[in-house]
Amino acid sequence: MSDIIFNELSIDFSFSNAPSSEQKALEILKKFVDNCLAYSLAAGTKIFVREYGNISGDSVNLSTTNFWQHNNIYALLSKLGEQDELKSEEILRFKQMLAEISFVDVDPEYKYKTKEVYGIGKAIESESYIVSLSTHSDWNSKDITNVQKTTVTPVYSTSTCPAVNNISTLSHVFIDHSIWNSCEYKHNKPKKDYLLPNFNQSEYIPKAYGYLGWSDFKNEMIRTLDITKVKKMAEIMAIINGYVALGAVLDNQNKRRDTYNSKNYYLQVETQHNAFEVYNGVTNHIGELELGLKAINEDKADNQRFIRL
Questions:
Q1: Rounded to 5 degrees, what are φ and ψ at 214?
Q2: Is the pTM of this model over 0.70?
Q3: How does DSSP classify residue 170?
Q4: Dihedral angle sign, alpha carbons of residues 72, 89, 141, 132
Q5: Kind and range of the H or E element at 157?
Q6: Widest CA span of the chain, in angstroms?
Q7: Distance from C-alpha of 149 to C-alpha of 134, rounded to nearest angstrom
Q8: d(Cα 77, Cα 93) in Å, to the nearest integer?
Q9: pLDDT 10s digits, 62-114
Q10: Which residues pair with 285 in a beta bridge?
Q11: pLDDT tens digits along 109-132
């Protein structure tokens, strides 16, 4: 089990910039949920949000924290659902993360500048990622520094701790920290109608690159094709859906294409069409799968195509 370590200073009124309205609070929470779920997807493991306390790993309760204007996390999640900002399955996954948080009173063992902290220090010790609500300008950085280890009360700080990797934007997950590079997920049962088991969550990928979604991305690629970006986004899509990268592999047209494999299925990147050429076996081309679509276009199957492994 892996952990997302929560930056509790994000909801400290004395340290952070509290949202000016309930709608602003909803926007911040939506961003936080997206970051948590995207990290879970990219890591390929079961992830829980934890707000750590001392070195022993005890945790303090986040789920009952009064958020803003007397609404806690669950009340705000419900409103995001009512506004169609979060799908029911997204809310469920996030609630499952929160369910792991316990009710333990702990003493702080770290300081960030002048405030006592819990999660940041634990993230440094375990070399984990910390996810912030981004209500303080410092949280926007992908690295948080100036964290100091403390000893007894009154606090006596020691040397500054190393920087910790911070996640407050989707780009941190997919671009800056490239968490998907070590994704542990494997797709062991690929079928023609089940090629992308994490398709629904893959919408985070174009958003990390600043697009509204896959359609927005493809519309821009029609106007100005960016081959490097297409290859990178296709690579992320393949890996978070459990495929193994084989590198640039020749096809029968003597073109080297980035290729991914799971069992007997192969995906080769077709940059011109923002798509994968799909093979069931190296000699059985069964069609084309556009990035952002779930179904194979079998009309583009070509029995003359094959892969040179």
A1: -65, -40
A2: yes
A3: H
A4: positive
A5: strand 157-160
A6: 76
A7: 23
A8: 12
A9: 544 544 444 577 888 999 999 999 999 999 888 887 776 655 555 667 777 77
A10: 279
A11: 777 777 777 777 778 878 888 888
